[in-house]
Structures are given as structure tokens and as C-alpha cells.
Amino acid sequence: MFRTQKWTLFSTLLTLVALILAACGAPADTGGTTTSPSTAASPSAAAAPESPAAGASPEASASPASSGASAAGGKLEIFSWWTNGGEADGLNAMFDIYKQQHPGVEIVNATVAGGAGTNAKAVLQTRLAGGQPPDTWQLHAGRETLSYVQAGQLEPLTQFFKDQGFDQVMPKLLLDQITIEGEIYTVPVNIHRSNMMWYNPKVFQDNNLQPPKTLDEFFTVAEALKAKGITPLAVGGKDGFEASHLFESVLLATFGPEDYTNLWTGDATAWADERVATAINTMARMLSYANEDRSARSWSQAAQLVLEGKAGMTIMGDWAEGYFLTQKAKPNVDFGYAPSPGTDGTFMWLSDSFGLAKNAPDRDNGLAWLAVAGSKAGQDAFNPKKGSIPARTDADKSLYDEYLQSSIAAFAGNKLAPSAAHGAATTNAYQQAFHESLEVFSSDPTDTEGVLATLTEAVADLTR
Ligand code: GAL
What is the DSSP string of 71-98? Predict the structure, then answer.
């Protein structure tokens, strides 16, 4: 009930925002990249409910997307939430390639700030529902893609994908995640790792500490840091996904990769397992070692506390390394890294990808963007800045720093588990509930029963 009322309020607000953006029209032609105003919608607005999916099967496109090499003029509107250091730099590096190839096309960089897309997705849904899609938008490979396919919002890319040869150079894991009922729907640009812990090497050295490998070790280290007056764990919350991000690593540590993965099949009995309550209690205990101002800090501001030595550790996806690099920090010198406690040997993955809007205003320009996003040159320009590894298997590894090279090896050698907070295992509707319930819990970590009840109820959203 609470969620429904809140959604009604926010959907009214977001409709207004979308109408204002639409009334403003596209930014003036600067001959380069233009950026639409970032929207300061509340993080808890998150994604809109799915469009009715009942029986909706993806329609085949009348003229299946094929090679998009013909972009000559007009605009290309790309929608994403990449506004932070690292993210924005990677995106700009791909824009540079696009501009070289298609100098006559004006790129409209439509961003809505807020990590994990908690704000962007709500604005996007309003635009899609109003028949005003951008040409292409950022989305996650996996079940999140299903959200858009079920709503009939994406054009199939199967022929285009083959024409570009992408099917020959991407791992089967990804191909399976972007194929729905026999059609490919997105072009993956990277693979991120969610279950990473970033720490301050100097703080650890000065206090004779080793990065914790298990949850027990985490609490021992946390106690030692606290005794020295250093915040043990930096946690954000301003972007509305930082708590759920931390929680998925705790679930992985508590369940192990196989049982963790079974939590996202849509079977509610998996959530009756007593280990869910154990994980919630562990999360509450971890939060007792975290900064109290977390609801006012974004994920990058939490990472900054670690960089400055004000906090010892943070648990965040490896876009944090992209952020650290923009601060001129060096891996294993200014920041250290290790799998989040209790998850060594598992790579919790997610993949950013781009799709083509059904009825895209500038369809050829959109296809030309997808050609860059899936290319070796595009991925090797984007990923070293973004803090992610390429989705392609033929990338030039020498361009990637020591952290990313270790991540390439881990992806190849570790067990794999899908991220829930970032759409690999979950629909948009589920993510909204997941993010919101964990943020509420982060602000009041005593309500363990409340978060358990909400998460159990949300299981129904995993399949719609
Ligand atoms: C994730 C996305 C990453 C990064 C992160 C923080 O959902 O996949 O690329 O942008 O959010 O914004």
C-alpha cells in the first residue's frame, strides 16, 4: 500500500518532469555533444512499474535492424545515468569515436544523475510511455532487458548483431542474457564486478591490518579501525541503491554462489530460508560500523572517504575504480581491492548494454552508435576509463590497468553469479522494491522483519 501511494505521487511528479523536458525540446545544435539537464528526482522514485506483460511476446520488427553505417546527419540521443567521474569519461571516449565516424551527427547526451539509474529509469519510463523515446538507452543485460522487451519498447537487433560479427566475439553467458525468444535485443559494452571491496592501503598498513577475506574477519578489522577512530565502512545512500548493493554481497557471502543465484528464480520459498534472516542481521551489524550520514552521500562520495583515509573500506562495484582513476589515484598504491568479504572465488557480474528504441527518431544514427558500442575500438576506449572489462573477448589487454587485468582473469576463472541490484538477475520492478526496502533498512537497521517481509513480497516482481 505504502509503495503504491508513493508511486502515484512520484509518477505524477515524473510526468511533470518529462513534460517540462519535452516542452524544452532538444538542446540547440552545438555541432558537438549536448547534455540535457540532470533531474533531481528523489532516489526512491526509482523505476516505473512494468507495462502489462501478460502474454506479450516480442513483436518481430517490420524491417529487422541491420547494418547502421549510414548515419550522415541529424541527431543521436543517448540516454544514460553516467554523470560521475569515470562513467562520463568512458562515455565521452566513445562519443569521440562516433564523432570521427559521423561528423555530421549531433550527439545529444541525455543523462539523469543517480547511480544504478534509480532516477534515470523513472524518467525513461515516462518518456517511453509517452511515445518520446531516445534513440538508444543504457540498460543491463539479463532480466532487466526483459522488462523493456515485454513492454514492446526495444527493436530486435539479431541481424545487425550478426552483420557486425558481435556474435563471434562475445561470451556465451552474455549472448544468452541478451537473447529473448530467439531475438537479440542489446549490445553489451562491458562487464562490471559488483562484489568488490575497496580499501585504503595506508590505513591498513599503519594499523597492521590485512584486507578481510571472511565476514568474521571483516568484523575483527572493523572493530580495530573503530578503536582507532576511523570509520570502518563507508556506505552511501543518496543515489538510492548503495544499501541494496552492499546487501547483495552479504547475501552472496551467506548463501554461496549456487544458492544465492536460486534466490532470483521467482520461487518465494527460497526467501523462507533462515539464511535470509542471517544475512539481514549481518547487514545490520555491518551498518553499525558505517558512517551515519550515508543517506546524504552518493556512492562516489563514500568511495572518496576511503581515498582520503577517513574510512577504511567500502563495498561497491568496480565503477569505483573508474572514479578513483579520475582522482589520479593508482591501484595498489592509493587504493587496494579485494573481493567483498566471504565472496572470494565468485565474480558477481553485471553488463551495461545499449538497445535501440522501437520507433527511434533517428534510427540509423542509433544503429551507428550500437556499432561503436560493440566494436573493439569502442570498448577499448570506454572500459579502461569506466573501470569495467570489455564484453568482447578480443580486447587489447595491454590497455587495461592491473586491477582490470585481474578482473579479466577472475571473470574467466571464477564462479559466476548475477547481480540483483544491477539488473542481471532482476526486472526493473523488482529492483525498485529491492533498492527502496534496503534504503529504508539502512536508515533504521532495527527493522529486520520489515525488510524481510518486503523482500518476500517483492519476489512476485521477479517474473513480471
Ligand atoms: C550500475 C551501472 C554501472 C554504474 C553504476 C553506478 O547500475 O551498471 O555502469 O553506472 O550503476 O552508477
Answer: --SSEEEEEE---STTHHHHHHHHHHHH
User: How distant is the alpha carbon of residue 161 from its chain centre?
Assistant: 23
For residue range 47-78, list pLDDT tens digits in order: 222 232 222 333 333 345 554 456 789 999 99
303 lines ligand 1 (CB under 6 A): no
Cβ of residue 108 lying under 6 Å from some atom of ligand 1? no
CB distance 199 to 337 below 8 Å: yes
| Its pTM surpasses 0.90 | no
**Measured from the CA of 115, which atom of ligand 1 is nearest?**
12
The pLDDT tens digits of the residues spanning 233-273 come to: 999 999 999 999 999 999 999 999 999 999 999 999 999 99
Q: Specify the amino acid at residue 277.
A: A
Enter the DSSP assignment of 358. T
3-state class (DSSP) for residue 361: coil
Atom of ligand 1 nearest to the CA of 299: 6
- Give the burial string for 98-108 (b: 16+ CB within 10 Å, else e): bbebbeebbbb
| Poorest-pLDDT segment among 24-28, 207-211, 300-304 | 24-28
Report the distance separating Cα 346 and Cα 413, nearest Å: 9
Q: 8: how many CB neighbours lie within 10 A of its CB? A: 10
Task: Report how far residue 236's alpha carbon sits from residue 98's, in angstroms, rounded to the nearest whole number.
Answer: 34
